Each structure stands twice: as structure tokens, then as C-alpha cells.
User: What shape does this take?
Amino acid sequence: MVRIDKKATRLYVLDTNVLIHDPAALYQFEEHDVVIPMTVLEELDKHKNGIREIARTARQVSRTLSDLTSQVSFDEIQQGIPIPRISGETGRLRFLCYQDLKPLDNLEDSPDNRILAETCRLRDERPDASVILVTKDINLRVKASALKVPVEDYLNDRAFSDSDAMIEGTKVYADAGQDGDGLWSCLNVEVKVERVDHHTFYQLSGEMPRDWHVGMLVSDSDNGADFEAIVRELSPSSARLQLLTNYRHHAGVWGVHAHDSRQNFTLNLLMDSEIDLVTIAGNAGTGKTFMTLAAAFQQTLDAKQFERIVFTRAPIPMGEDIGFLPGTEEEKMSPWMGAFHDNMDNLLRSEDGDTSWDNGATRQLLGSRVQIRSPGFMRGRTLNDTFLIIDEAQNFTPKQLKALVSRAGRNTKIVCLGNVGQIDTPYLTANTCGMAAVVERFRDWPHAGHVTLKSVERSRLALAAEELL
Assistant: This one.
């Protein structure tokens, strides 16, 4: 039976999925104690073998537990192992082991139910302490609530507190007036305009809006905007804005034209050599992949800024081994690359409606520059002179997306595409997924930009589906 210091007021019992989701979860509970049931250790042991991401994470958790227990005696383990926290507080790590554990009434023997039984017994033995089960499993939280066991989701890894709080990357002063003067009256700043190397800059002096950040769009309208600029520098009393290139007319980007301010801003971010990381969010049909591929081909095939385009996305379900499919890596990824092939078909379609994507010579030409890769085989690589496109980024955990973004080498641009409203990976939410983490962490980095697209470009049926369903 576990022995617990009477001074402790909160005992957090961690489920396996919490440790798998965040191997550093042990260090996130301030001065409170962390309890790991024996069932959790058994589940970690089952997951440790293999090359999948869950196996690597399980081994990392096991190494952390080994480091904490290797320097202490058996009696000290029974008393609780001190866990140093960044805040300076020190909680204790305790292991929960009941040799005569009785299953809960009317519940079958399963890992989740054993964890519930262990938590219930600890709660009964410690009426003086608050015993709280922490799990990312929704069903387990429901069962715990039904058994009157205090239960919480693991929220420490949230990029923000509200799922609607992810920045849009834009500030549109839609009521600024037809001539744009209203925009400046709203800002109430002094403006100095200068021209440097064929670019127009606006130097603003005065009190800057608190919701501005570096790399965002400032516009006076969603559609027929007279003023569209990106914030290059920002302080509480000044800002430096650069006018955007207008991609609504002329040749556009590889034949692709913007229809509104957000799309024009997206193309500017994709074509800007000063922006190394671009994140594009939006519902299905807003043109995320279409515009990104157009910009990639423009800079790789025409401008020769990059040597290759690498397109990757998570096979769903995330982390499954793709080795059972026949063929090369690209052929194995083909079932998950429908969005890529659809957009290539549209990009290579002529005015007459014919497409050259089905032509073998075209595919061979583009195949020498375009690589389709599985994220599972990106570990350890360094990508130089590469335009890397990460599709469905919302289905990656922050750790997995970090592993991909950190592949960037010399002259590499990374674009993350996703819709936080369509997450297919278990235990991820709109504010804990990798997409949300990247947007929030790179918010004020001058070489990153984010935009949330709104207008659906597919058809009136697709637009109605987004609104009605």
C-alpha cells in the first residue's frame, strides 16, 4: 500500500495517455504529488517496442522514471521521490501498487477500469486529501464522473485557453471608409511613408493596438482593399508596415490569383523570402493547398530559389506503419495524397479544360523536383534548399510537428496547412494540437507568418455544407 505524507492536499493520478502525450507531465503539477498506478507502468511496457512514435515516447517516459528512481533507496521510493519543478516547488512521485486490488462492480477487467479501481481505493484510503484522476480519454472521464471520482483533462499543453482564441493573423478595418482615411483615424497615429528597394514602407508613431503582432496583415477591407500591409516591426509606440504585392491581377503566382485580402496576404507570405515559416488555417475548400503548391512551383521551377518540393502529411490514423502497402515510399503514401493529386490536376489545367497531369512526361518532369514523403521517415534528416509542405498539420502533436519543423536546413521554407476543426488523432483538440502550438509559439517571430482563410472557393455546395453541417 502506498504511504503518503499527510501534508499533501492534492494527489494527481496520471493515466497512460497523459504520459504518452507529454513525457514531461510529471513536472507540470507545481507543489502537488503525482501518483502513477502499476497498470500505467504495465501499459508503458507494452508500448515500448517498435519504431512508431508512441513507442519512442513510451521509452522516453521509462527513461525519465528510471532516472528518478535509480538514485534512491526502496524506502525512499515508498515515501515518495522528490520531483524538482521549474517553479521551485517540489512535489513527490509515488507509485500505486495493490496486490489485492478488487475490480469495480459490474465492470469488466480492462486497463481503464483497473486504473479507476486503483484511484477509487486511493480516494477511500485518503479522505484527507484530494485525489484527482488526470486523463485525456473522454470515455474514462465520463466513467470516473459516474463513480464520483474527481477527474480532469490534462490541460498544461494547451497553446491557449479557448479553442476560438487562435490568432487569425489579420486585422481588417472593414468600416474604415471607402477612401481608406478611416483606417488612419481608427489608429490615431502619425504616418511617414518611404520607398526602399521598390518596396513601400509606412512608419507609424503613436500608441499601437494591443492585438497587433509581427507578421500580421493590416487591411482596410476584406475584398476591394485599398491598403494591405504586413507588420514588419512593432513596439508599444511604433510600427513599421510594408505594402503587400497585389496578386489579384497580372500573372499572379503560377497563374493563381487572389480573390480577397486574406488570399493576397497568403500569397505574399508564401512568396516572401524573409518568411521561413508559414501556417495557413482554414476550412476545407479555402485554397490552402492550391495556393501553396502554386507558390512552391513558382519559386522552385521558375525562380530556382529551391531545389525541390517535399510534400508530407500524416497517414490517418496517425503513426500507423505504411510498410504493408506495396511499392516505393511515394506509392505507399499515395492513398493519403488525394488532395495533392487533385490540386496538381487543377494547377496544370489549361483554359480549354485539358490537364497535363495525366501525361507521363509531365509527371516525370515534376517528379524530379517534387517528393512525397512519409513523416515517419523524416527523423534525422536535414532539408536544404527545400520548400517543405506539411499538410493536415492539426493531426500532429506539438512534439511530432517540432520534429518536422526542426528538419529545416539552409534555404528552407516550411508551410503548415491545417484545419483545427477537423482533427482525427485521438486525444488532440483544437488548442492542444501541433498546429495550434506552432501558431502560438511563433506568433512574434519576425520570420514567421500566419493567416486564417475564410472564403470557400470550391462551389456553392461546399460553402453551404460548411455553413449548414
Observations:
- DSSP finds 15 helices and 18 strands in the chain.
- The longest helix spans residues 53-70.
